[in-house]
Amino acid sequence: xxxxxxxxxxxxxxxxxxxxxxxxxxxxxxxxxxxxxxxxxxxxxxxxxxxxxxxxxxxxxxxxxxxxxxxxxxxxxxxxxxxxxxxxxxxxxxxxxxxxxxxxxxxxxxxxxxx
Amino acid sequence: xxxxxxxxxxxxxxxxxxxxxxxxxxxxxxxxxxxxxxxxxxxxxxxxxxxxxxxxxxxxxxxxxxxxxxxxxxxxxxxxxxxxxxxxxxxxxxxxxxxxxxxxxxxxxxxxxxxxxxxxxxxxxxxxxxxxxxxxxxxxxxxxxxxxxxxxxxxxxx
Lengths: 115, 158
Prior knowledge:
The complex is a heterodimer of chains A (115) and B (158).
Chain A: H1 3-14, H2 20-27, H3 31-38, H4 45-61, H5 63-78, H6 81-100, H7 107-114
Chain B: H1 6-15, H2 22-29, H3 33-45, E1 49-52, E2 55-58, H4 64-71, H5 73-89, H6 105-129, H7 148-157
Helix pairs in contact in B: 4-5
């Protein structure tokens, strides 16, 4: 997945219900341009930064998110490979279980079916 | 990720030896339609189950390496921890005791004998009701015991 796609996907995870108009208002990108970007048109650096900024704002709203980031950073330098593997496994299980409870097939499955 | 998630495991267990239809799997597991469907899709993509003639069944050609990865010691440990965590997180309708107990040698022997009896009782109870009980209506029971010192050592070791 390209960096642009992953940014848009992350944005969608943080703002799942937003309309194109709302995305435009939040990022300051014109609505027609937003439409093109979500449909795969290459992003300019300024637009990429606008999406990333919106994501960072959402992350900052959740203190647990910054705790997680801080702890992961520390864990990667202190814990053994085995312990890190267990944490990764734990997170992966949590994420997978959440994916299964979504109404629609997750993008991973869609990609796999298309492929 | 090593092993299956507990949700995936429930689906696999519900298939039995001869496979099941989607409706039967849902009835056995009690899972919501979309969750059940997503889990089945995920298991198909992983090559663990297959779908033929409206029936989902366990793939007979799973490699021994994959079986070890899904059923190995590490996988079982992660799965059981996931289930224990879910039980600990439940707000009501649960039985959960976790205590440090002082046991002298004699009482420890008595306790182990009681556990032995409990195990036999559960084995018989399971054999008696297995065929008439849906997977979703089964109980999850677990127990364990160790010395505080040994546990502390293990935690320090990591």
